[in-house]
C-alpha cells in the first residue's frame, strides 16, 4: 500500500520527536543535577555569610553608640545600643540553626560567647560612669580601650572566621559544580551531535522520496510570486500535493477577485490606525465635523473616567462637559485653522494639559474630522511656579536691606564732613548708584516672576493704545533733549482701542523708548510709529544708534543679554517686554544693522 504524503511526514515527524525527547530528557537530567549542586553552593553557605554580615554591621553600630555615649553622655545612645541587641540576636539565632560545615558549630559558639563577654564589658563600663566627675570622659575612654574594645575586636574576628569558613566552602563547592557542569556539557554535546547526525541522514533519505512532486508546484508558486495569479498549477497527482495544487488554484482565483477591490487594504489600514491610537500614552480623541466622538484611546478613558462604548457617536460635551474645550474646538472650525494649541486646566485645576487640535483632510482637502490630543504639562507648570515663587521671595529678602543701604548712603551725603571730603563723597555716590542699579535689577526680577507665574495676574481693560504711546513719547522728550535727540511720532490710526493690561503695555513702550535714547548717538532722531490693520495694531520704535550685530539679534530677548557691556543695564528689560507681549498673544521683533540703528516692532491682535 502506497503511503500518503501526510503519513510520510508523520513518520518523519515522529522520528524527530523521539530524537528531541532523548536530547531533552538527557538535558533536563543534567540541568537538575547541576541545579542541585548550585543550590548546595548558594543556599546554606550564602545564608550564613548574610547572617555574619548583618552581625558585623550591628556590632559596628553598637560600638559607635558606645563611643557616642562616652563623648556626649546622652542616654539616647544607650537606648540605641540596647535596641540593636535584638538586631544582633536575630541573625545569631538563625546562624546557630544553619550549621553546614565542619568546625562551624564551634566558631558559631565562639560568636555567642564573645558577644556575651562584649555585653558584660559594656555593662561594667556603664557602672563606672559618674556624671559628676570632671574626668568622666577620660575614665570611660580608658575603660573602653582596655576592656570593651578588645572584646569588640575579638567578637568581630569570630564573626569573620565563620564568614570566611562559609566563603571557602562556597569556593570548594563551586569547583565541584564546575566539574559537573563540564562533564554534563560534554555528554550533552556528544549526544546531541550523534542524534543530530542521525536525524540529518534520516531526513535526507525520507524527504528525497516525496519532494519531487513539489518542484512542479514550486515553479507555479514562483510565477504567482511575480504577480501572475492568472497562471494555473498543473495537478499531476491525486495525493496531498495534488490537493495542495488545487487549493493553490482556488487561492489564486480569490486573490484575483480581491485585487479588484480595496476592502482588504482599507481594513488593514484601519486596524493599524486603531492600534496606533490605542498605544498613545496621552489622552486622545477623534471627532467628526459635528464634534461627535469617533474614537478615543485608553488614556483618555482613564483620565476622564468614560467608556468608549458609551460615548461613541455622542457629542463631546456629553462625554466631557468642559465648555472651554468645546469653545476651543469651535474656534478652530470657525476660523478654518489646520492646527491650534491651548493650555487648559482640568479636574479643579489639579491637572494642566497642553491641548492640541489637528484637522483631518481627505484627498480633496475636505474636512473630515478633528484630532484632539492632551499633553500633560502639570509637572512643568508646578516647577515654573516654584521657580517664580523662589525668585520673588529672594528678591523681597534682598530688597529690604538694600533700601536701608540706600537710605544710609543718602543720609551720609548730607553730612558736612563728608561733603568736604571729595574721596569719601565719591565712594558714597558710587554706593548710591550701585544700590540703585541693584534695586532696578531686583524690581525687574519681581516683575518677571509675577508675569511668568500666571497670565491671570494681568489687569485687563479697554484702553486707547494711541494715547498710551503719545503719553510715553511726551514723557521721554525731556530725557532725549539732554542728548539733542528728537523723537518723531507718526500715527496712522484714529482712536484704536485695545483690551489688555495698560500698565504693562505702557512699561514695554517706555522700555523701548529708554533703550532707544540710551543707545542713540547725540544729535540723532528716534521714530515712533503706530498703525493698524483689520486684525492687528502695530507700533515700532526706530533709532539711529549703535545697532546690534547680526549674530546677536537672536539673543536680544534672552535674560541678562547685553549687546554693549560699556553701557549700563541689567539685560532684563527686553526679556521682560517679550514676556508681556507673549501673554497678550502678541509678537515683538528686532531688526538692526550694526552702527546704523535698530527697530523694535510690536504687533498686537485686535480682541474687541
From TrEMBL:
It is found in: Cell membrane. GO terms for biological process: osmosensory signaling via phosphorelay pathway; regulation of DNA-templated transcription. Keywords: ATP-binding, Cell membrane, Kinase, Membrane, Nucleotide-binding, Phosphoprotein, Transferase, Transmembrane, Transmembrane helix, Two-component regulatory system. Residues 269-340 form the PAS domain. GO terms for molecular function: ATP binding; phosphorelay response regulator activity; phosphorelay sensor kinase activity; protein kinase activator activity. It comes from the Bacteria. This is histidine kinase. InterPro entries: BphY/WalK/GraS-like (IPR050351), HAMP_dom (IPR003660), HATPase_C_sf (IPR036890), HATPase_dom (IPR003594), His_kinase_dom (IPR005467), HisK_dim/P_dom (IPR003661), HisK_dim/P_sf (IPR036097), PAS (IPR000014). NCBIfam families: sensory_box. The chain crosses the membrane at residues 12-32, 186-207. Pfam families: HATPase_c, HisKA, PAS. It catalyses: ATP + protein L-histidine = ADP + protein N-phospho-L-histidine. GO terms for cellular component: plasma membrane. Residues 393-608 form the Histidine kinase domain. PANTHER family: SENSOR HISTIDINE KINASE YCBM, TWO-COMPONENT HISTIDINE KINASE. The keyword Iron does not apply. CDD domains: HAMP (cd06225), HisKA (cd00082), PAS (cd00130). Residues 208-260 form the HAMP domain. PROSITE patterns: HAMP (PS50885), HIS_KIN (PS50109), PAS (PS50112). Its EC number is 2.7.13.3.
Amino acid at each position: 500500500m502506497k503511503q500518503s504524503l501526510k503519513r510520510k511526514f508523520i513518520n518523519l515527524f515522529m522520528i524527530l520527536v523521539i530524537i528531541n525527547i532523548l536530547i531533552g530528557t538527557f538535558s533536563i537530567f543534567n540541568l537538575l543535577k547541576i541545579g542541585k549542586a548550585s543550590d548546595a553552593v548558594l543556599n546554606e553557605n550564602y545564608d550564613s555569610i548574610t547572617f555574619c554580615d548583618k552581625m558585623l554591621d550591628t556590632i559596628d553600630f553598637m560600638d559607635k553608640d558606645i563611643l557616642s555615649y562616652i563623648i556626649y553622655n546622652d542616654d539616647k545612645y544607650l537606648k540605641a545600643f540596647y535596641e540593636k541587641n535584638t538586631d544582633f540576636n536575630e541573625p545569631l539565632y538563625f546562624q546557630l540553626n544553619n550549621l553546614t560545615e565542619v568546625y562551624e558549630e564551634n566558631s558559631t559558639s565562639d560568636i555567642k560567647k564573645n558577644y556575651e563577654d562584649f555585653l558584660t564589658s559594656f555593662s561594667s563600663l556603664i557602672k563606672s560612669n559618674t556624671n559628676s566627675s570632671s574626668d568622666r570622659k577620660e575614665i570611660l575612654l580608658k575603660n573602653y580601650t582596655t576592656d570593651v574594645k578588645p572584646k569588640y575586636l575579638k567578637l568581630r574576628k569570630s564573626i569573620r572566621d565563620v564568614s570566611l569558613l562559609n566563603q571557602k566552602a562556597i569556593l570548594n563547592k563551586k569547583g565541584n559544580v564546575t566539574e559537573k557542569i563540564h562533564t554534563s556539557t560534554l555528554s550533552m554535546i556528544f549526544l546531541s551531535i550523534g542524534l543530530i547526525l542521525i536525524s540529518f541522514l534520516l531526513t535526507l533519505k525520507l524527504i528525497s522520496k516525496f519532494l519531487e512532486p513539489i518542484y512542479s508546484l514550486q515553479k507555479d508558486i514562483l510565477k504567482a510570486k511575480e504577480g501572475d495569479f492568472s497562471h494555473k498549477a498543473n495537478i499531476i497527482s491525486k495525493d496531498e500535493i495534488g490537493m495542495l495544487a488545487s487549493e493553490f488554484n482556488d487561492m489564486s482565483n480569490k486573490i484575483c477577485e480581491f485585487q479588484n477591490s480595496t476592502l482588504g487594504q482599507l481594513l488593514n489600514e484601519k486596524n493599524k490606525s486603531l492600534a496606533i491610537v490605542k498605544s498613545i500614552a496621552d489622552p486622545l480623541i477623534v471627532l467628526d465635523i459635528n464634534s461627535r466622538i469617533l474614537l478615543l484611546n485608553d488614556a483618555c478613558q482613564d483620565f476622564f473616567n468614560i467608556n468608549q462604548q458609551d460615548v461613541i457617536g455622542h457629542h463631546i460635551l456629553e462625554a466631557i462637559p468642559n465648555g472651554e474645550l468645546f469653545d476651543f474646538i469651535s474656534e478652530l472650525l470657525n476660523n478654518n485653522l489646520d492646527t491650534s494649541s491651548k493650555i487648559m486646566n482640568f479636574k479643579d485645576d489639579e491637572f494642566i494639559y497642553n491641548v492640541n487640535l489637528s484637522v483631518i483632510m481627505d484627498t480633496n482637502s475636505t474636512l473630515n474630522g478633528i484630532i484632539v490630543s492632551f499633553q500633560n504639562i502639570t509637572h512643568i507648570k508646578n516647577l515654573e511656579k516654584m521657580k517664580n515663587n523662589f525668585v520673588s521671595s529672594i528678591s523681597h529678602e534682598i530688597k529690604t536691606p538694600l533700601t536701608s543701604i540706600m537710605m544710609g548712603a543718602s543720609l551720609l551725603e548730607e553730612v558736612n564732613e563728608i561733603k568736604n571730603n571729595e574721596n569719601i563723597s565719591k565712594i558714597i555716590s558710587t554706593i548710591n548708584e550701585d544700590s540703585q542699579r541693584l534695586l532696578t535689577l531686583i524690581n525687574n526680577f519681581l516683575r518677571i516672576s509675577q508675569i511668568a507665574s500666571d497670565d491671570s495676574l494681568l489687569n485687563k481693560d479697554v484702553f486707547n493704545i494711541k494715547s498710551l504711546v503719545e503719553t510715553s513719547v511726551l514723557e521721554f522728550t525731556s530725557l532725549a533733549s539732554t542728548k539733542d535727540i528728537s523723537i518723531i511720532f507718526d500715527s496712522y490710526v484714529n482712536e484704536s482701542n485695545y483690551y489688555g493690561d495698560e500698565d504693562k503695555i505702557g512699561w514695554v513702550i517706555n522700555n523701548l523708548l529708554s533703550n532707544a535714547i540710551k543707545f542713540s548717538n547725540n544729535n540723532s532722531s528716534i521714530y515712533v510709529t503706530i498703525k493698524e490693520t483689520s486684525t492687528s495694531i502695530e507700533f515700532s520704535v526706530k533709532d539711529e544708534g549703535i545697532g546690534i550685530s547680526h549674530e546677536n539679534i537672536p539673543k536680544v530677548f534672552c535674560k541678562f543679554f547685553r549687546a554693549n557691556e560699556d553701557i549700563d543695564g541689567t539685560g532684563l528689560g527686553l526679556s521682560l517686554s517679550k514676556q508681556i507681549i507673549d501673554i497678550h498673544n502678541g509678537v515683538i521683533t528686532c531688526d538692526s544693522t550694526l552702527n546704523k540703528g535698530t527697530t523694535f516692532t510690536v504687533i498686537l491682535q485686535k480682541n474687541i
